[in-house]
């Protein structure tokens, strides 16, 4: 089939009935549930962009294997130009959602592409796993599917490993083998967008210990597989709030869910890894599933940071406070943050790394630096927005107030901004800012930048240890050892 249209994606959502629980209710029709309807339409728009003549050649390519048009997220990059093709789809999808939806289809499609192109790693442990991931890659590529993933165990007792928890199947683990496949039981989190996706893929961060064999798992299933239950978090919006009042929260709610597997059958041809602690611990470093999708996360994060910085600048301008030195200093800082991330991504792409297979990956040090900086840069952008918006952020009326004739005059008189900024425009601007920096929706966006790919503290520690392995800090030796031209003239 190749690239899907938005209508085909919506048709697929409507054709399924995953077991979704939200606010104590079992959702029977995901598409018609107000919390999900607008996000589904946003996703459909991304699928339609693949068919838009303005973007098609930028974000898709003709697949050599099938001759069909395919999203660039499924391209195995072999050179700098391929990385640019990948970047194009990340950028177009992120711009369409202002970087506010982190788990658009391109994210996990890159993960699976990376597992596919590095399937030799799985082959060493079990040739069937390699065959399975290759077939799965082709299946999602050729049907242009949308995946969610759950790679974290529920937050129960983090001081104990999976097999040490009170109930052996609190964390998702294999119960038994059958001729048809594996029976799995337990929970995994935090599956963003799960109710509106086609498939779920399960794998894990490293950290397995001997005794954790049954938890060392990687597999994929359709979201409506019997026995798979999605427990949604409390929605950040109910899906019915007017777009005037919540221009972002009402469009880009990325629902997160805990996935519960109640003795679910995973067919053998969907098992990519099982019962092997060593393979599970090496999956990340050996298949590029951190580095390749970090390119998507970096590009998407850049758009989000740029958007936050631009909203802060426009808020400041709208009430004339950007004439003050302190405000200029804060806004200048945000623009420099954006430029830092932009430059790092360029460096990552230019200084790509080539694997023995010929696949290239954006430079790991630069990408990890992006990852390390965003958890402070994005919250800082939000803080600056709060500081500059000040009391105005809390006193916005609603769209309905502008429509009430008795107070329409007040709206224009008391809410207008600097010369040229109408009351309605200023209120709209401040509402955009409030969705980002005040609403629960905005707090989730902030938490996302901290945690979307693991604990930033441990990530930076891993970064340091890896950096140290590859660097001797040679400049220090050069400073300690006087050069010959000085030695002869100096008393040491
Ligand atoms: C908005 C959002 C969306 C997400 N989307 C997804 C998704 O789509 N799919 C998915 O699988 N995951 C997703 N995640 C989950 C994400 O991967 C985890 O939040 C992240 O890995 C951190 O794990 P945790 O939340 O369980 O925190 P924990 O690991 O429980 O950490 C809690 C605190 O304890 C400290 N800590 C815990 N263990 C240790 C240790 N061993 N050593 C030192 N310090 C420790 C941490 O530093 C942290 O401060 C998402 C998270 C967020 C916030």
TrEMBL record:
GO terms for molecular function: oxidoreductase activity, acting on the CH-CH group of donors. FAD binds at residues 149-151, 155-158, 192, 455-458. Residues 5-273 form the HpaB/PvcC/4-BUDH N-terminal domain. Coiled coil: none annotated. SUPFAM superfamilies: Acyl-CoA dehydrogenase C-terminal domain-like, Acyl-CoA dehydrogenase NM domain-like. Pfam families: HpaB, HpaB_N. The keyword Oxidoreductase applies. Residues 280-480 form the HpaB/PvcC/4-BUDH C-terminal domain. Keywords: FAD, Flavoprotein, Oxidoreductase. InterPro entries: Acyl-CoA_Oxase/DH_mid-dom_sf (IPR046373), AcylCo_DH-like_C (IPR036250), AcylCoA_DH/oxidase_NM_dom_sf (IPR009100), HpaB/PvcC/4-BUDH (IPR004925), HpaB/PvcC/4-BUDH_C (IPR024719), HpaB/PvcC/4-BUDH_N (IPR024674). The keyword Cell membrane does not apply. It comes from the Bacteria. This is 4-hydroxyphenylacetate 3-hydroxylase. The lineage of its organism: Bacteria, Bacillati, Bacillota, Bacilli, Bacillales.
């Amino acid at each position: 089939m190749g690239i899907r249209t938005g209508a085909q994606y919506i048709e697929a959502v409507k054709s399924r009935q995953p077991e979704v629980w939200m606010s104590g209710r079992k959702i029977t029709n995901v598409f018609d549930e107000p919390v999900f309807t607008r996000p589904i339409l946003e996703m459909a728009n991304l699928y339609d962009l693949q068919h838009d003549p303005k973007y098609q050649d930028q974000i898709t390519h003709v697949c050599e294997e099938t001759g069909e048009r395919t999203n660039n997220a499924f391209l195995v990059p072999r050179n700098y130009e391929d990385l640019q093709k990948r970047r194009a789809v990340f950028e177009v999808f992120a711009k369409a959602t202002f970087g506010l939806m982190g788990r658009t289809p391109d994210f996990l499609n890159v993960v699976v592409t990376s597992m596919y192109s590095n399937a030799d790693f799985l082959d060493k442990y079990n040739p069937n796993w390699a065959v399975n991931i290759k077939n799965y890659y082709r299946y999602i590529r050729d049907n242009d599917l949308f995946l969610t993933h759950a790679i974290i165990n529920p937050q129960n007792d983090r001081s104990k490993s999976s097999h040490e928890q009170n109930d052996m199947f609190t964390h998702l683990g294999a119960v038994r083998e059958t001729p048809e496949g594996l029976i799995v039981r337990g929970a995994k989190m935090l599956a963003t967008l799960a109710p509106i996706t086609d498939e779920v893929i399960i794998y894990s961060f490293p950290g397995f210990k001997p005794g954790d064999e049954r938890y060392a798992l990687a597999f994929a299933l359709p979201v409506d597989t019997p026995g798979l239950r999605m427990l949604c978090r409390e929605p950040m919006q109910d899906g019915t709030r007017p777009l005037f009042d919540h221009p972002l929260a009402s469009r880009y709610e990325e629902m997160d869910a805990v996935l519960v597997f109640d003795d679910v059958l995973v067919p053998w041809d969907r098992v990519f890894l099982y019962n092997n602690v060593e393979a599970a611990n090496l999956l990340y470093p050996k298949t590029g599933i951190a580095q390749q999708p970090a390119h998507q996360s970096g590009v998407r994060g850049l758009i989000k940071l740029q958007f936050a910085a631009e909203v802060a600048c426009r808020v400041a301008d709208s009430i004339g406070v950007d004439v003050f030195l302190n405000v200029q200093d804060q806004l200048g800082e945000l623009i420099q943050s954006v430029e830092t991330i932009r430059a790092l991504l360029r460096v990552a792409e230019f200084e790509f790394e080539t694997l023995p297979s010929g696949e290239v990956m954006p430079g790991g040090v630069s990408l990890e630096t992006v990852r390390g900086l965003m958890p402070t840069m994005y919250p800082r952008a939000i803080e600056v927005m709060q500081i500059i918006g000040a009391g105005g952020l809390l006193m916005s009326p609603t769209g309905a107030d502008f429509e009430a004739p008795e107070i329409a005059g007040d709206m224009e008189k008391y809410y207008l901004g600097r010369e040229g900024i109408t009351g309605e425009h200023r209120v709209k601007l401040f509402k955009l800012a409030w969705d980002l920096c005040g609403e629960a929706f905005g707090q989730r966006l902030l938490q996302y930048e901290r945690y979307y790919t693991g604990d930033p503290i441990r990530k930076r520690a891993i970064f340091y240890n890896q950096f140290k392995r590859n660097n001797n800090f040679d400049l220090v030796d050069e400073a300690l050892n006087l050069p010959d031209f000085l030695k002869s003239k100096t008393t040491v």
